[in-house]
Amino acid sequence: MAFDLDMIKKVYDRYSTRVAAARKATGKHLTLTEKILYAHLSEGDAKQAFARGVDYVDFAPDRVAMQDATAQMALLQFMQAGRPQVAVPSTVHCDHLIQAKIGADTDLSTAKDVNKEVYDFLASVSDKYGIGFWKPGAGIIHQVVLENYAFPGGMMIGTDSHTPNAGGLGMVAIGVGGADACDVMAGLPWELKFPKLIGVKLTGKLSGWASAKDVILVVAGILTVKGGTGAIVEYFGEGAQSLSATGKGTICNMGAEIGATTSIFGYDTKSEAYLRGTERADIADLANAVKEHLTGDPEVYANPEQYFDQVIEINLSELEPHVNGPFTPDLAWPISKFATAVKENNWPVKLEVGLIGSCTNSSYEDITRAASIAEQAVTKNLKAAAEFTVTPGSELVRYTVERDGYLGTFENMGGVVLANACGPCIGQWARHTDDPTRKNSIITSFNRNFAKRQDGNPNTHAFVASPEIVTAFAIAGDLTFNPLTDTLTNTAGEQVKLDEPKGIELPIKGFAVEDAGYQAPAEDGSKVEVKVDPKSSRLQLLEPFKAWEGTDITGLKLLIKAKGKCTTDHISMAGPWLKFRGHLDNISNNMLIGAINYFNNTADSVKNELTGEYGPVPATQRDYKAHGIGTIVVGDENYGEGSSREHAAMEPRHLGVRAILVKSFARIHETNLKKQGMLGITFANSADYDKIQEDDTFDILGLTTFTPGKPLTVVLHHKDGSQESFAVNHTYNEQQIEWFKAGGALNIIRRQMAS
Ligand code: SF4
Questions:
Q1: Which of 151, 434, 469, 585 has a CA that sits 20 to 30 A from residue 662's CA?
Q2: CB of 358 closer than 6 angstroms to any ligand 1 atom
Q3: β-bridge pairing 712-717 and 351-357
Q4: 425 C-alpha vs ligand 1 centroid, how far in Å?
Q5: Residue 315, SS3 per DSSP
C-alpha cells in the first residue's frame, strides 16, 4: 500500500514557515502540539492568535480513517458530494462487526457471512472513491494505522474514539463523527476548538513488571474520566524517549478514557526505529530532516509550567503496575493495594476470564512480554485457572508472533486466539457462562470497562491492566494474587513464583505477513458500481435533501416540546439501533424516542394534532410527513449534547422536521444540523419556552432576508385563536446560510463539482 510520501513531504515543507510565523505571532516558544496545529491551519498563517479552549479554528487534516460501523453513514453521505475521489488519503477498516465466539477462523467466516452486505458496500464504495480497504480479519483500525499510516507531525481524524492511538508516532489524531469525516473527504475544512494543553513529564525508566500501560492507568487515576476534556495531553522528558513507539501508542490510545481530545509524543529514536521496522525508512529519513519541528521547543520542556495549562510528573523508575476498575477506567489501584481493595469492596475474588490484545495492547512487545509469563505456566507446571483469550491487533502482528512461536505459547497455556478484530472489547463476545446472574470478575488489557461493555452482563466486574499482568492473573485465577510478591501452588504441590516479564520491542527477524488483508482502490473508479441491495434493512443509499422553498416557513405543528436533558442519545438512541446506522429510514424509527414530552412527562408519547391521539414520536412524525405537514421540535438547554452522532441531525431532516427551536444547543450538534440544511434556532428570551403550547401552530418569519446576526421571528398560533410572537436567534454565517438554502452542505459541494 502507498505511504503517501508526497503528501508527507508537502506537510513537512510547511513546517519551517508555519512554525517560524507562529513563534513570531505568539512571541513565545512552542509545544509540539502547537507546532502541529499551526502547521495544519486550513487558512495558512492568517489566524495565529487564538485562545486555548475558546476559539474554534479550521484545520486541514492529512488523513481520514474509518472503522466499519461508523464508515457506513460517513460514506453514504460522501457519495452525495459528487466527487470522483476523496480529497485526502482515507482508509476503511473492518474490525467492529466480528463476533468472538469459538476462535479466529470460524468467527471470521461467520462474520463475513452475517455482514456480507455491509462488507460488500464498504469494499465497493472504497474501490470507487480511492479509499484503501482493509478486509475483515486484517486488523483493528488503530493498530493498522500505526503500522501503516501514522507519521510524526501529521494530523488525522478517525471515526472512532481511540483514533488518538496514532499519537504514539507523533501524530495529532482525533476521534470524530461520520459527518466530520465526510466533510474532510469532501474537501471541506474541519473545525476544532483550539485545545487546552496538559503536559506530562516522564522521568526515569520502566523496569520489571511496570509497562507503558501503567503510565496511562496512573494518569487516568489522576485526571479521572473528565480531566482531559477539551485538552491535548503532550508527553515529554527522558522517560518518554525511553518508551517504545507502540508503548506510546498504548498511552495515547487510552487517553480517550480521560476525555482528552488526543494525546501525543514527540519524534525520537524509538519512533525512528518503529518506522524503519515497519518498512517506512523513507518516512524516517524525511522526519529526521525536520526533527526539530517534530518535538516541543527545549525551553518549553525545561519550564513546562509556563507553557502548559497543567503539568503532571511521573517517575517511571518508581512506577508500580496498576489495575483499574471495576466499571470505570479511572479507579486506579497500585498492585500492592489491589488485593485489599478487592476484599474490602467485596468484588468477586475468583477471576473467570483474562483477555489480552485489542487495539490498545497487541504490539509485538506486548505479546512477547505476555508470552514470557504464559511460558512459565508450562515450565513451572502451573495450570491456568481462568479462561484466557488473545486478540491480535493486526494480521502483521499475528503472522509474525505465530512465526516466532508466541501464539503457540499461549495455546499451550490453554489460551484461545481470536480473530484480528475488536471482538470482546466492543461487546462482540458470545461469552460462555453458566450463570449470567452471578457476580463475576474478568480482567482485560483493553481500555474501557464500563458496565456491560465486554459481555453485556451488568454483573461482570471488568478490570483493566497490562497484558503481562492480565496473563499472570489468568494463571492465578484469583484477583487477590500479586504476581510481584506472591507464589502459586503448581501441579506438583510446589510453591512457585513468576519471573518478571521479558519482551522484545521489534521482531529480530523483522515483521512478516503473507496477506495483510489490504485492497487497494481502483485507479479509475468511475466504472465501479457501489453495491447496495435495495431490499437491505441495514443499508440505504441517501437521496439529497430538498432545497429551501425560498419563502418563510409557516403552518408547522409541534412534534415534541422536549423537557430537560436531550442528548444525541435521546435523539438517536444507540444499542440495538446501531445495526441500522447505514439505513437512514430504518434508524429514523428511533428518532427522539428518548426525549421526555413536556406535556405528559413521558418518553416517546406525543400528541398527533391530526388525530388527537398520543403515539410514538417517529410514527407521529411520519403521519405529518405523509400529509405534507412540516413540524418543529422545541428543546431545553444544551440540546444535542453527547456524542457527535450525525444521525441525530439527519433523522429529523429525513422525516420532515423543519426546525429545532431550543434554549441553547451543544455546539457540535448545532453544526451538524446546519450541515444537513436544518434550521436550528434559539429563544432570544429563554422564558419564551414557556409560551409553547401543545396544540400550537408555528410560523418562522424573516427567512427571505436570512442574514448573519439578524434574529428571526416565531409566531405562535394558539388553539384558542390568539397568537403571540417572539424573536429567535441563530448563529449561521454566510456560508451556513447557503447550506440552509441549498438543503445541506453536500448539495453545494455536489453543485460545485458538477460545474
Ligand atoms: S479494539 Fe476496542 S477500543 Fe479498539 S477500536 Fe476496537 S472496540 Fe475500539
A1: 585
A2: yes
A3: unpaired
A4: 6
A5: strand
Segment 134-157 mean pLDDT: 98
Distance (Å, whole) CA 387 – CA 368:
19
What the block records as the C-alpha cell of 115 is 455482514
H helical segments located in 513-565: none
CA dihedral 681, 54, 183, 4 (to 10 degrees): 180
Owner of C-alpha cell 444547543: 665
Q: Per-residue pLDDT tens for 365-405?
A: 999 999 999 999 999 999 899 999 999 999 999 999 999 99
Q: Quick check: 194 and 51 in contact, CB under 8 A?
A: yes
Query: How far apart are the C-alpha atoms of 346 and 479, rounded to whole Å?
Result: 11
| Cβ count within 10 A of residue 403 | 15
Q: Which three cell numbers stand for residue 488?
A: 502459586
Residue having the nearest C-alpha atom to atom 4 of ligand 1: 359
- Answer yes or no: 93 catalytic: no
Backbone angles phi, psi at 610, to 5 degrees: -80, -30
Closest C-alpha to ligand 1, atom 6: 422
DSSP secondary structure string, 123-182? Answer: HHHHHHHT-EEE-TTSB-HHHHHHHHT--TT-EEEESSTTGGGGGGGT-EEEE--HHHHH
Question: What is the DSSP pairing of strand 322-324 with strand 679-683?
Answer: unpaired
d(CA 123, CA 463): 36
- Could you please report the per-residue DSSP string of 15-64? HHHHHHHHHHHHTS---HHHHHHHHTBTTTTS-----TTT-EEEE--SEE
Other CB atoms within a 10 A radius of the CB of residue 579 amount to 16
Decide whether any atom of ligand 1 lies within 6 Å of the 162 Cβ: yes
Q: How far is CA 459 from each of CA 329, 450, 456, rounded to the nearest angstrom?
A: 17, 11, 9
* Backbone CA torsion sign across 712, 568, 234, 296: negative
- pLDDT band of 23, cuts 50, 70, 90: confident
Query: What letter would DSSP give residue 114?
Result: H
Instruction: Please give the helix or strand (H or E) that residue 248 lies within, else none.
Output: helix 245-254
- pLDDT score of 47: 56
* CA–CA dist 592, 607 (Å, integer): 14
Asked if residues 114 and 437 have their Cβ atoms less than 8 Å apart, the reply is no
How many whole angstroms separate alpha carbon 557 and alpha carbon 697? 5
**How many angstroms separate the alpha carbon of residue 162 from the centre of ligand 1?**
7
Pure H helices in 523-680: 568-571, 584-587, 617-626, 647-655, 667-675
Nearest to 287 by CA among 299, 269, 262, 265: 269
Burial of 232 (0-12, 13-18, 19+ CB in 10 A): buried
- What the block records as the C-alpha cell of 96 is 467492529
* pLDDT tens-digit series, residues 57-108: 889 999 999 999 999 999 999 999 999 999 999 999 999 999 999 999 999 9
Pairing assessment for the beta strands 697-701 and 553-561 based on DSSP bridges: antiparallel
pLDDT tens sequence across 641-666: 877 789 999 999 999 999 999 999 98
What end-to-end distance do the CA atoms of the chain give, in Å? 33
